């Protein structure tokens, strides 16, 4: 069943939540409605551990055309702009750090903030029509939507500077060659490939993968000792989950682990052990 939000819709496929930007007339630009809808959906996912992976994409021929031009031209007061970025801080870091795997499917352009949104995912499946464009300095603004955090981590500082300063555009193959995209497929296969990848992640130890994701996001600014400490605490936490018990038992019994079934059986699929349920 498809659930409608302003300029956005979701659909559940077993343990995968499909999220589609749905404002084709504005090329899925980051309108106020889309931003508020993304915040609401992100909060819902944070509270629902039966969702083990996310697939994010855009309806139509464009993934996301970046900032909403109407908003940029009409809302010029400094306090209005400040409010927009304060609101962005209520869902963008949360989406980037979500403790479940996120896959993004990109067809057509991902411009500016649209590219930033795509790079919040753990893996990007790009259609052959995909184009990743910086566009920020062409408009005379600082890169946002966490682009200055994600892009240097994905491709290195020197390449990130060159890409941003030159207002570059990468096609799907160039984005793949530079490490931004995980896979390039024909446009008509983007959703099938992206959803299949999300299901593959969902069938793995999704919550343990989320713990590892949290640590990886801290790796660039942490010392060696801090990383050792985080791995220590994370491993203890991971080995207390039903996913670890299932993985260990499957290894001993020489069978394929059923992580999703193990979490559901022990009542962890909604984030609460069955013993605490009424």
Describe the protein in words.
There is one protein chain. The chain has 14 helices and ten strands. It has 278 residues and is of the alpha/beta class. The protein has two domains: 202 residues, 2-enoyl-CoA Hydratase, Chain A, domain 1, CATH 3.90.226; 71 residues, Lyase 2-enoyl-coa Hydratase, Chain  A, domain 2 (Orthogonal Bundle). A hairpin with a 2-residue loop joins strand 2 and strand 3. Helix 7 crosses helix 8. It starts with a strand and ends in a 13-residue tail after the last helix.
Number of domains: 2
- Helix tally equals 14
CATH topology category name of the largest domain: 2-enoyl-CoA Hydratase, Chain A, domain 1
- The backbone outline, from C-alpha atoms, is globular
What's the helix-strand series?
A: EEEHEHHHEEHEEHHHEHEHHHHH
CATH architectural label of the largest domain: Alpha-Beta Complex
Outline the low-pLDDT stretches. Answer: 272-278
Oligomer designation: single chain
The proportion of residues in beta strands is 15-25%
Main β-sheet, spatial strand arrangement: 1-2-3-4-5-7-10
End-to-end Cα distance, whole Å, is 27 Å
Q: Sheet bearing the most strands, described?
A: 7 strands, mixed
How helical, in percent, are the residues? 40-55%
CATH class category name of the largest domain:
Alpha Beta
Number of strands: 10
* Alpha-beta content class: alpha/beta
Report the CATH superfamily of the largest domain: 2-enoyl-CoA Hydratase, Chain A, domain 1
Give the rounded overall mean pLDDT: 91
CA-atom Rg in angstroms: 19 Å
């Amino acid at each position: 069943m498809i659930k409608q939000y302003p300029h956005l819709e979701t659909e559940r496929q077993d343990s995968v939540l499909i999220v589609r930007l749905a404002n084709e007339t504005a090329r899925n630009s980051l309108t106020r409605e889309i931003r508020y809808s993304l915040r609401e959906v992100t909060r819902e996912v944070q509270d629902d551990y039966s969702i083990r992976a996310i697939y994010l994409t855009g309806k139509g021929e464009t993934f996301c055309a970046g900032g909403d031009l109407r908003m940029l031209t009409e809302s010029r007061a400094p306090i209005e702009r400040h409010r927009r970025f304060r609101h962005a801080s209520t869902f963008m870091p949360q989406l980037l750090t979500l403790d479940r795997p996120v896959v993004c499917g990109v067809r057509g352009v991902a411009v500016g903030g649209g590219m930033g949104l795509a790079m919040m995912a753990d893996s990007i499946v790009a259609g052959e029509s995909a184009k990743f464009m910086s566009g920020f300095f062409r408009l005379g603004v600082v890169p946002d939507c966490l682009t200055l955090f994600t892009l240097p981590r994905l491709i290195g500082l020197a390449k990130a500077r060159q890409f941003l300063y030159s207002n570059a555009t990468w096609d799907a193959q160039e984005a793949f060659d530079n490490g931004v995209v995980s896979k390039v497929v024909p446009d008509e296969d983007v959703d099938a490939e992206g959803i299949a990848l999300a299901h593959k992640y969902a069938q793995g130890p999704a919550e343990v993968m989320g713990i590892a994701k949290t640590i990886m996001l801290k790796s660039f600014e942490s010392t060696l000792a801090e990383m050792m400490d985080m791995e220590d605490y994370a491993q203890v936490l991971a080995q207390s989950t039903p996913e670890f018990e299932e993985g260990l038992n499957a290894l001993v019994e020489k069978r394929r682990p059923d992580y999703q079934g193990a979490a559901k059986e022990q009542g962890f699929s909604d984030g609460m052990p069955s013993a605490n349920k009424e």
